[in-house]
Amino acid sequence: MPEVLIIIVTWNKKQDVLNLLKSVKNMDYPPSSADVLVIDNASQDGTWEAISAAYPYARVIRNTENLGGSDGFNTGLQWAFDQPPGRYRYLWLLDNDVTVHPLALAELVELLKKNQNIAVAGSTMMQLDCPWRINEMGAFLNRSSGRLILNRHLETVAAWEGRSLASLLSENANLCNHLRECRPYAEADYVAAASLLVRAEVAKAAGLWRDYFIHFDDVEWCLRIAQAGHRIVASAKSLIWHSSASAKTPHQTVYYDNRNILDLLRTYRADEVTIRRVIRRVWMKAIYFALTGRGHLSRLHREAATDFMAGRLGKKDIHPNQNAGISRRTMPQLTEVFKILKTWMRYGCEK
Q1: Of the residues 210, 230, 247, the one at which a domain ends
Q2: 8 A C-beta contact, residue 137 and residue 186
Q3: What is the pLDDT of residues 119-147, one digit of tens each?
């Protein structure tokens, strides 16, 4: 089997990354053909020690600070780029909190082996909290609105409903057997780096990730690869399970989502009308959250827009306890304002 380098980035998720490494170890892929590289972003929870004890064959690079997903993966990619030519045919990027099906890697490798014009293949992402539900099978970027369109988002595999993840890991992974109008793989603008297999030479030609810290960095990288003339697809036969967005706290993602999508749109030459519309939408959300007493979320939206306009990328110091909103005691007097703002946010910003 072709040589694969598995790159995992982690920060203070010791148990999650140990669970991931356990599922990687149980894969139906020759261990001699898959090297594991873990980038530890200065975890303080004993991650490095636990990995070294349980999985001594895994190479761990310890960064001196939390560089986020962007520069965390860049650390791993740069290490891969520095290896002798031909050492690895593919690079497999994984989130630290996913569980992979035993055939996840083998199916992605087989897909790229059979289709030389495909450069990137991603797994179908299932929801960890509802293992029978699809989160995405690749996705597209609506360049006029700055929104992601997740393929087959929230579709349910009826035959699996109610079953545990443990039981599904031994199930046939081919979703074509369970879904209507499902082909072995689907074209996409991007596949998430929760499970992304890329040809090593294509990755090196594309270069390192843009410094978004977290979120939209894998989207930008896939768009860059596609812009070079390569195909991006998502496999219906390679499955991983990942926490759904509803299970995550928004505080650490709101700022990066809004700032980075604006930068991505400008990087890929969206017209100024589109960019102004997206900025206006961000500002209206900032006003809405301020009026509803959620000053922290308001400030994150406002700073996302102002930092984008100032050209600031990278890590942002976010303090979740800061609040500067209007008191909830003023809510009765602002009912009509809320209605207007909701209508404007829903419809006005799209015109």
Answers
A1: 247
A2: yes
A3: 999 999 999 999 999 999 999 999 988 99
